[in-house]
Specification:
Rossmann fold; 548 residues; 29 strands; 3 domains; mainly beta; globular
Length: 548
């Protein structure tokens, strides 16, 4: 079992079918390492491709603890630093779905998994799509559960309500490992938290809603309702086609929040009106009755672009009578990947293509008096890296459509899960409290947009053995509204460890910029012992852009 990479490992080990393995629990994980991980989405490169590479760059720079390994700690540290890989360079060399990604993607052959699978996730996480996909694709016994949470274990994740994950897991293990009739297999196949409408916020302490259940997936309780996208409107009828254009400023996306919210700080999407301003909008009518969306919406667009490569982002939003716009879900497509991710093809500028853009799975109840909005943009910075050129897209109304998975009104609410039971927390002393800040600013003279994200995880002493740990992350994203090749990303981590007069620190930095043809990576590690630099290394790399 495990969360995130531990969840990936649980699935990948299950696909190897070791004889002793009876069951797994996989949390916040993916079955598809290319199309539904932190690297690429819809064939567009996610900024988290750099973000996670930078995080691992920092984590891997730390030495082993002398209290555990003894006097060899320094030699081990030096070998580790000398052999540190530049992950972002490797990932940039694989922009399409090739064997590099297929190797770790259990969706390539679900039948390889025979052990029973319990898949758990959260709507605030980046990995919830894999759960319904596995429930419909696996042949082995399986259960799925999705709460309102971000990328954390559900007994302490936000937003609340939390659940008793530890005892829930015990019923799973008792059934599959001990043969105890714990009742776990009489539970519904798919349990999910139907979130109520909520105003936009960068962080939610609690999400109102209720637990629902499905005995099969896909479910007969969910029907597809198709609407026409007409100029400015979402309607049930499709009048004569009209051409609509969108050419988004490159900073469209500043309200997107983090791709994978995990630090329990200001990471959720904020009021979408700032991004709506750079998007082509389609608004539905005011709802007279609640509307429950459960599953993956999608849009089909008749679309043309004036460049050979173009990214399209589609957001589904919940618009309040007072104007606030809450992002419900979103999807991205690099139009060169319109026929698949393995062999993308450049666009013929001006030619109209029929494309399908699937949005992320969600369970969301839109309240009466609100209305739905579809927002289409040609940029989504800094969540995805921009196209090589400033793109104008033309969309035909009427024939372009929105399909919503609507859950029928049925009386099947589940009782709330038991409140969480947890082990006593570690005995820690806080030496520097943690803090989070996310700021967006525009230079009115130059037109440059800058996003600054500062995550200070504080400094803490473990009272059991005295180790003091500290971490600080600083991210800077810069772009000019009219120039995609002005994009710049700079991520700087500081890691500190200390105990009884022993003190080490590492500073890692990764930078990414581009022109129309290449990506340029600059990276550096500096390591310090007792305040003196003991190691330094720099990287400069150029990687060709291939339809991304």
């Amino acid at each position: 079992m495990g969360i995130s990479w531990g969840g990936f490992n649980a699935l990948q080990v299950a696909a190897r079918r070791p004889q002793a393995l009876r069951a797994i629990i996989t949390l916040c994980s993916t079955d598809d390492r290319y199309a539904d991980d932190i690297h690429y989405k819809g064939g567009a490169m996610l900024m988290e491709n750099l973000g996670w590479a930078s995080t691992m760059f920092a984590f891997s720079s730390r030495p082993p603890d002398p209290a555990l390994v003894g006097g060899c700690w320094r030699d081990t540290w030096m070998r580790r630093l000398e052999n540190t890989p530049l992950l972002i360079e490797n990932w940039l060399h694989h922009p399409h779905r090739d064997d590099f990604w297929k190797h770790g993607s259990v969706c390539e052959k679900f039948s390889d998994i025979e052990a029973s699978v319990y898949a758990i996730g959260g709507w605030g996480d980046a990995y919830s799509n894999a759960i319904p996909r596995m429930l419909s694709g696996l042949d082995c016994p399986a259960k799925g559960l999705i709460g309102p949470w971000i990328h954390k274990y559900p007994h302490f994740a936000k937003p609340e309500p939390a659940m008793d994950f530890l005892n829930d897991s015990l019923t799973w293990w008792d059934h599959w490992l001990k043969g105890v009739d714990s009742g776990v297999m009489r539970k519904p196949l798919y349990q999910a938290y139907m979130m109520d409408s909520a105003p936009p916020a960068s962080f939610y302490e609690f999400r109102s809603g209720r637990w629902i259940a499905e005995q099969a997936w896909p479910s007969q309780n969910v029907v597809s309702r198709v609407y026409a996208l007409n100029p400015g409107r979402i309607t049930e009828s499709a009048p004569v086609a009209e051409s609509m254009t969108v050419c988004s400023p490159q900073h469209t996306g500043v309200a997107c929040g983090e791709f994978c919210a995990m630090w329990q700080g200001p990471e959720s999407p904020t009021d979408q009106r700032i991004d709506d301003a750079g998007s082509l909008l389609f608004d539905g009518g005011v709802l007279e009755n609640p509307l429950e969306i459960f599953g993956a919406p999608f849009v089909e667009l008749d679309i043309a672009a004036d460049r050979p490569q173009a990214n399209i982002t589609v957001r589904l939003c919940d618009v309040w009578p007072t104007g606030e716009s809450t992002r419900i879900t979103f999807g991205v497509l690099n139009l060169c990947h319109r026929n698949g991710h393995e062999r993308p093809e450049p666009l013929q500028p001006g030619k109209t293509y029929r494309v399908r853009i699937q949005l992320d799975d969600v369970a969301y109840r839109v309240r009466p008096a609100n209305r739905l909005r579809i927002a289409v943009s040609t940029a989504y910075w800094p969540l995805i890296w921009p196209s090589p050129e400033h793109v104008t897209a033309t969309i035909l109304s009427g024939s372009s459509t929105l399909a919503l998975p609507v859950r029928l009104p049925i009386e099947d609410d589940l009782p709330p899960p038991d409140p969480p039971v947890t082990a006593p927390p570690l005995a820690m002393e806080t030496l520097r409290p943690s803090s989070n800040a996310r700021k967006y600013e525009t230079d009115l003279a130059s037109g440059e947009c800058v996003i600054r994200i500062d995550d200070d995880f504080g400094e803490h002493r473990n009272l059991a053995h005295g180790l003091i740990t500290g971490q600080v992350s600083r991210e800077r994203y810069r772009i000019h509204a009219m120039d995609p090749c002005s994009s710049r990303a700079d991520i700087h981590w500081t890691q500190t460890l200390a105990r009884d007069g022993w003190s080490v620190r590492t500073e890692t930095r990764t930078k990414l910029h581009c022109d129309r043809v290449n990506f340029f990576v600059n990276a550096r590690i500096d390591a310090f012992e007792d305040g003196h630099r003991v190691f330094e290394r720099s990287w400069k790399r150029r990687v060709k852009r291939v339809l991304v």
